[in-house]
Amino acid sequence: MSEYIDFDEMITLLKEEFKIGAFPGKDPEKDETPDRSPFEVLISTVLSQRTKDVNTHKASEALFSKYPSPKDIAEAPLDDIKELIKPSGFYNVKAERVKRIAERIHNEFNDQVPEDIGQLLDLKGVGRKTANCVLVYGFGEPAVPVDTHVHRISNRMGIVEAEKPEETEKVLEEKIPKKYWIEINRLMVEFGKNICKPREPLCERCPLTHICRYYEEVYKDGN
Questions:
Q1: Do 92 and 43 share a domain, yes or no?
Q2: Do both 48 and 76 map to the same domain?
Q3: What is the pLDDT of residue 39?
Q4: Nearest 5°: phi and psi at 55?
Q5: 124 lies in a domain?
Q6: Residues contacting 90, CB < 8 A, separation 6+
Q7: Which pTM was predicted?
Q8: Which is deepest, 33, 57, 137, 161, by most CB within 10 Å?
Q9: Does residue 118 lie in a domain region?
């Protein structure tokens, strides 16, 4: 199935279904345009780990309203950071991570988030998904952030056959035209939250059934 996927058509159909949304720290109640500094994207993505969008938004808003810059967070009391980001969950670990990242950006990069993926990955607590989110949503640079939604959907549809997100990222970069890299994460995340859900995908609502391996091999035969 994957060999026949027309990515021009796939992206067009997803864009018709979903407008904006899906960027780190977004207010889930609003269809807002992403307007985040690279630092805000970086910290919001760290806070988004293992929590819901609404919690990420609350934590991000609380933190940045009091400590808007790397210098501010680097110099902030750790207990204060913990209290502000409580809505994101796992706040003890995340607070230490956020403060450590802010300290390095302040001390080593003059309060400017590096635009190099190698330097981003060198920040403790920053993995490939987070680094690629910073490139896409912070700098507008083409990259393919692979989170649980992107990884699941890509395998379910038959675009890739990969066990690890890093493997999925590599295959997607090979298959998807680079002109779509900036859009693919937000579109697939929205698609994964609203239609191609983890346990019960809503195939009856899906605009991509004609190019989906799961629909052909599992859903259609069982309904």
A1: yes
A2: yes
A3: 97
A4: -75, -40
A5: no
A6: 49, 50, 51
A7: 0.92
A8: 137
A9: no
Per-residue pLDDT reduced to its tens digit, 101-138: 999 999 999 999 999 999 999 999 999 999 999 999 99
CATH of the domain at 80: 1.10.340.30
Are both 6 and 61 inside the same structural domain?
no
Q: What is the 3-state secondary structure (H, E, C) of the chain?
A: CHHHCCHHHHHHHHHHHCCCCCCCCCCCCCCCCCCCCHHHHHHHHHHCCCCCHHHHHHHHHHHHHHCCCHHHHHHCCHHHHHHHCHHHCCHHHHHHHHHHHHHHHHHHHCCCCCCCHHHHHCCCCCCHHHHHHHHHHHHCCCCCCCCHHHHHHHHHHCCCCCCCHHHHHHHHHHHCCHHHHHHHHHHHHHHHHHCCCCCCCCHHHCCCHHHCHHHHHHHHHHC
Question: How do residues 155-200 score in pLDDT, each as one tens digit?
Answer: 999 999 999 999 999 999 999 999 999 999 999 999 999 999 999 9
Q: Give which of 175, 212, 174, 168 is closest to 13, Cα–Cα.
A: 212
Number of folded domains that form the chain:
2
The answer to whether residue 89 is domain-embedded is yes
Task: Name the domain boundary from 92, 112, 132.
Answer: 112
Tell me, what amino acid is at 1?
Answer: M
Q: Which of 182, 121, 187 is nearest to 150 (CA)?
A: 187
Question: Residue 218 pLDDT > 90, yes or no?
Answer: no
Domain that holds residue 207: 2-22+143-222
